[in-house]
Amino acid sequence: MNLSHSNRCGLQDRFLYGILNGVDYGEWSPDTDPYTNGIYYSADDLSGKRLIKTKLRAEYQLPNTDDLPLIGMTTRFVEQKGIDLVTECAEQILMLNTQMIVLGSGEQRYQDFSWEKSAEKYLTTYNKILSEKR
User: How far is the C-alpha of 96 from the C-alpha of 78, rounded, in Å?
Assistant: First the structure.
């Protein structure tokens, strides 16, 4: 629940607890990101986004199919991060005509998941350099 809406729901803020998450947009911004090989994009100019997707697909040997959405995830392979939900739904997601790249390491059962059933659709690996690229 969004804490700013708590009063509208008749709840008192003192009973709500949570962890504040957020993004440092100064560091995680596609129009200034130093890890995109000099290719940038912004809300006003999305042209660089397609080039970044093309390079990422090439790096992971996925077919460069512009009409397919590419889903990317870099995470620790632990339930706390939701990898259990991804493994449960991976095949259904891919039936929707998508591609996935899942990067991470962690619990062996998630590392052993049959990610590479269809190498043209998805794969997983741990790539320290790519995970630091964002």
Answer: 25
| 3-class SS shares of the chain: helix, strand, coil, % to 5 | 40, 15, 45
Q: Using pLDDT thresholds of 50, 70 and 90, give the confidence band for residue 19.
A: low
Which of 47, 28, 20 lies closest to 132, judged by CA?
Answer: 28
**pTM for the full model?**
0.65
Q: Which long-range contacts (CB under 8 A, 24 or more apart) does 85-92 make?
A: 87/113, 90/115, 90/122, 91/117
CA distances to 52, 54, 120 from 58, in Å: 10, 6, 11
Q: Name all domains of the chain by residue range, CATH numbers in brackets.
A: 55-133 (3.40.50.2000)
CB 122 within 8 A of CB 90: yes
Residues 6+ apart with CB under 8 A from 51: 39
Helix (H), strand (E) at residue 4: none
On the question of pLDDT at 22 being above 80, the answer is no
pLDDT score for 45 = 93
